[in-house]
Automatic annotation (TrEMBL):
Keywords: Hydrolase, Metal-binding, Zinc. Its cofactor is Zn(2+). It comes from Comamonas jiangduensis. The keyword Cell division does not apply. This is MBL fold metallo-hydrolase. Residues 13-193 form the Metallo-beta-lactamase domain. The keyword Zinc applies. SUPFAM superfamilies: Metallo-hydrolase/oxidoreductase. Residues 192-212 are annotated as: Disordered. Signal peptide: none annotated.
């Protein structure tokens, strides 16, 4: 069975998630933006073996710790979509701009495309390309537990910002309506910031995408 545990990291309180297969205890680290000592402590506490980093997108609060964590544990870096290559290249500048510790660029082991899958232990998740917040944003859908790790596409009561370089508001709305809603109202999503919610609740109450 698939399990996950969410850890708020960095001054931006970004939701880094540990996702693991309970049969193998192999884990993926979703969006390790920083506070790596905390992430490593949680991995040890839960008895997990980190095997990969999965990235929804390459903003500093999601990707700032990727290079260091990957190097320390020899992890594959999976994602995001290649549309975020320029954000990865600009990580040092992003860090300086927002007061983060120095962050190094990296080359993903594997870029992701819409319709791809990722695997940890005996568990498989589906990848959807969801541009709008960034051009290379992806989400990780685990239908076996009705969960989706959505990064900064959708929040409880809000949606992702689109005023950063190559953001696009209409693309973001289209990503939510065309890629997320078909996963089902019952699906609970883990956003990049703030509490979990469900697609059904947001369809009914979210002022930005309600009744879509």
């Amino acid at each position: 069975m698939l399990h996950y545990h969410t850890i708020p990291v960095t001054a931006f309180q970004q939701n880094c998630s540990l996702v693991w297969c309970d049969q193998t205890k192999e884990a993926a680290v979703v969006d390790p933006g920083g506070d790596l000592e905390t992430i490593e402590w949680e991995l040890e506490r839960l008895g997990l073996q980190p095997k990969a980093i999965w990235l929804t997108h390459a903003h500093i609060d999601h990707a700032g710790g990727v290079a260091e964590l990957a190097d320390k544990f020899k992890l594959d870096i999976v994602g995001p979509h290649e549309g975020d290559r320029f954000w990865i290249a600009g990580l040092p500048q992003q860090g300086a701009m927002f007061g983060f510790p120095p962050a190094e660029p990296f080359e993903p082991t594997r870029w992701l495309q819409d319709g791809d899958t990722v695997r940890i232990g005996f568990e498989t998740l589906n990848v959807r390309h969801t541009p709008g917040h960034t051009p290379g944003h992806v989400v990780f859908h685990a239908p076996q537990i009705d969960r989706c790790f959505v990064g900064d596409v959708l929040f409880a009561g809000s949606i992702g910002r689109t005023d950063f370089p190559q953001g696009n508001h209409q693309q973001l709305i289209d990503s939510i309506v065309q890629r997320l809603w078909p996963m089902g109202d019952q699906t609970v999503f883990i956003p990049g910031h703030g509490p979990e919610s469900s697609f059904g609740r947001e369809r009914k109450t979210n002022p930005y995408v309600g009744n879509t």
